[in-house]
Amino acid sequence: MTQTAVTEPTDTPNSAPRPRRRSNDRSIGFDVVAHIILILWSLLVVLPLLWVFVSSFKTTKEALGNPLTWPHSLHWQNYATAWNDSGVGPAFINTIIVVGFSLVIVMVLGAMCSYVLARFKFFGNRAIYYLMLAGLTFPIFLAIVPLFSILKNVGLLNTLTGLIITYVAFALPFTVFFLHAFFKRLPFDVYEAAQVDGAGEWRTFFQVMLPMARPGLASVAIFNFLGLWNQFLLPTVLKPDNSVLTQAMAQFQSQAGYAVNFGALFAAVVITVAPVLVVYIIFQRQLRGSVVAGAVK
Amino acid sequence: MSSSVSTTPAGRPARPAGRGRRRRLTFDRVSFFAVFLGVPLIIFLVFVVSPFVQAIYYSLTDWGGFSATMNFIGFDNYVKLFQDDTFVRSMRNSIILGLVVPFVTIVLALALATVVTIGGSGTGAVRGLTRSNLYRVVSFFPYAVPAIVIGIIWAQIYDPGSGILNAVLTHLGFDGAKNYAWLGDSRTAMAASIFVIVWSFVGFYMVLFIAGIRGIDPEIFESARLDGASRVRTAVSIVVPLIRDNIQTAYIYVGIAALDSFVYMAALNPDGGPQLSTLVMSQDLYTTAFTKGQFGYATAMGVMLAVVTLAFAAVVFIVNALTGGREKGGRR
């Protein structure tokens, strides 16, 4: 089937001038109900996050007291405690390293692989593509135990390198699947022209095809960033010493029951969530519409 | 699925790269294929495919994981699985999640997406609500929050003493909610967990459906409106059938994620909940492998999880086909 990226030039499905008619009462009622539903849902999403944010400025005593009160004063100390004493700081930096390298590598490899699969005919092309698709559907849990021993055997267990390679491998199917559609749509004439002008395959890819696939690359990169930043199972098994943010958070929570620094726990949550939310808000326009091309097959 | 003959946007059949003459095997081309296809494929085969294949073999052994010795024991692990009350319990819980979570998530996401896209004014052109973009952006937030953190946040919200849920309920006059442990009572632990999982999924699928609905030809909406179809009728008779494929794919994705659920459950109820009421297969697998060191037995659990997952996907496909899903290639 054809995969179409949906662009949204306007907010409405139809931008044709519409006749100005007075809406009747029933329609106003519907509008009100619709808005109420959406507002309720938005509150359900935002309020928990807001509560965490407010609580991150409370002292432990306040956090354990009435949850509905505002903090007495802004207890910035929590952020310092979370960053320094609970391992969130180093884990944050490790996460940036691991996610950064994985993201760059998987984007390059994924673009290369999907380009070849989408534009060249050779024996086994379809088979490789479907094998990649299958990699998307199997539960990672089935692979996790053998993966542990593979990394152990090659000496990459407990290393950031091992984690990066695994991240790349498991993000590859999604990347290839998504970019396949983009490369398929690029006009073949441009490729021909580049070939006639004497560009080799490498040059054609990096200087002609890759820049043309930029919109697709941007969306995939955002999805991969979110996915890798949120990864929990792989680091938990392959890197057991709490060096990645999600692990540090889990560790922090399990301690919190005893050591009870709830203000710092909330601060750690904010430290973890804030960068991703900011990235999302900045780039959310890139995601508009392009979602559908990747998720529909 | 893409057909084997690719088409350019203009609809002309694409020309195969090597048409006409055979390309010579220059260094440029050989190195190109080796690096562009070879490198990603090797990484994929070694770190993704081979573990899956090995898992099936390990599940037939008594391997402990840390020793080199293992014996082939056939299907003993699988027999043991079904006599293992804890595992049967976890499998039941996972299946409950696989049944409830996708259904609730998809219905909710679809309803919200429909309201945003065609819930606008009842007269004139079919349009979305005003300020719907804000709702769309906000709804997507949970997708940007790591699942473990979502679990932590909700564990705090549900906390009997210091959580905001009980505080709000008590404030509203529900005195029974005072110090009620939502996750500590086997009557509510599962439902409370399901709520969290749905909360984290809905926004993403809402955005997905919004994009799908915006892709529908506006003229279809126009003619429906001219024929006097109400907004509810439009949603049921036009939107749902036309984005049916999106719904099916989304249903399968949510289902796979719900059958896993490891992260949420690990954060909400690390020990499997009161009377194991929220223990899921993936949690049992994790403990069996990495705490108890029974790798062979744990991979058998992994295989069962994969079987349940594939069965789930198959059921979704069959149901979709039986209820009139369009045949492959029948689009447009």
From TrEMBL, chain A:
Keywords: Cell membrane, Membrane, Transmembrane, Transmembrane helix, Transport. It is found in: Cell membrane. Residues 1-23 are annotated as: Disordered. It is a multi-pass membrane protein. SUPFAM superfamilies: MetI-like. Signal peptide: none annotated. Residues 92-283 form the ABC transmembrane type-1 domain. InterPro entries: MetI-like (IPR000515), MetI-like_sf (IPR035906). The chain crosses the membrane at residues 28-54, 91-117, 129-151, 163-183, 217-238, 258-283. Belongs to the binding-protein-dependent transport system permease family. This is Sugar ABC transporter permease. The lineage of its organism: Bacteria, Bacillati, Actinomycetota, Actinomycetes, Micromonosporales.
TrEMBL record, chain B:
Residues 1-20 are annotated as: Disordered. GO terms for cellular component: plasma membrane. Keywords: Cell membrane, Membrane, Transmembrane, Transmembrane helix, Transport. InterPro entries: ABC_transporter_permease (IPR051393), MetI-like (IPR000515), MetI-like_sf (IPR035906). It is a multi-pass membrane protein. It is found in: Cell membrane. GO terms for biological process: transmembrane transport. It comes from the Bacteria. The chain crosses the membrane at residues 30-57, 95-122, 134-157, 189-211, 250-267, 295-322. Residues 91-316 form the ABC transmembrane type-1 domain. PROSITE patterns: ABC_TM1. Belongs to the binding-protein-dependent transport system permease family. This is Sugar ABC transporter permease. It comes from Actinocatenispora thailandica.
